Amino acid sequence: MKVEIAELNQYDIPGLIDLSASVGWDYDEYEVRTLLESGRVFGHKNAAGRIVSSSAIIPYDTKLASIGMVIVQEEFRGLGLAMKAVRKCAESINGDMLLMLIATKEGKPLYEKVGFKTVDFISKFLCDQFVPVHLQDHDGVFIEDFNQSDFAKLVNLDGAAFGDKRSVFLRNRISQSKQCLVVKNNNGEIIGYGLSIQGPVNLILGPIAAADSDTAALIVEKLALHHKGKLRIDVPEGRTDFMPYLERSGFVKTNTPPVMMKNSAAMPQRNNTLYAIASQAFG
User: Which of 31, 241, 252, 281 could serve as 213's disulfide partner, Cβ 3.0–4.6 Å?
Assistant: First the structure.
């Protein structure tokens, strides 16, 4: 079977959606477009031009890049295509950057072969129907819709929570979002924010950064309150202060995939304010 690797672009969006659907993933046009506009996507095509593998890389502002959407069509597995696509991603950026990914059970042995090590875990929570706890705004905390004038401060807040600034990705993600909320204190300083993204199956909540778990819960409540349908939130494993609230609200933990790093033995330094990641592709 003759296949060739190439960098993919906007004309390949339908083929990437078909590839993701073939393995039961629910990427849509908006999600794939955000990947392409925030980073680069590589993949193999067969002789008929059909995309049979993919891997995306999203380089952030200074030191960190995230790898995601690593997929191989079932009949093309065992040919080393995933490894070649991941290597192509790694070669496309500065060799000093730290590489991060969230692995599937099937993908973990492949990543270990190319030098990735497990450094953390993510808890995937799904909810069929949100049960509002009817949290009250706390004194001195105000939640409002994102305004473009808040962008630079939001990037700084997210950078401290995530471990690297990611201005290009956040600009694209906010454009894609159903809702983007910011939390301000009495002085008008931003102390938290959260996004919701409408996918084909779930309303995805994240990223969420907040000063404490009560504020994070308030953001979830505001993002989820009037949504009729399924929700998903991916939470860093250490957030035992936040998970009981999610469970009271109807979320169920369904999986705990590993976070893996290359070129580093640990996650980049974070300030313990990250309560939900953007997605498994973006970290």
Answer: 241
Give 38-92 pLDDT, tens digit per residue: 999 999 999 999 999 999 999 999 999 999 999 999 999 999 999 999 999 999 9
List strand residue ranges (DSSP E) for 74-158, in order.
98-102, 117-127, 141-145
Q: How far apart are CA 268 and CA 221, in angstroms?
A: 29
13 exposure class (CB count in 10 Å sphere: 0-12, 13-18, 19+): buried
Query: CA angle, 161 as apex, 65 and 234 as ends, to 5°?
Result: 75
Identity of residue 44: H
C-beta of residue 100 within 8 angstroms of C-beta of residue 259: yes
Residues 6+ apart with CB under 8 A from 5: 42, 43, 44, 53, 81, 84, 85, 88
CB 201 within 8 A of CB 226: no
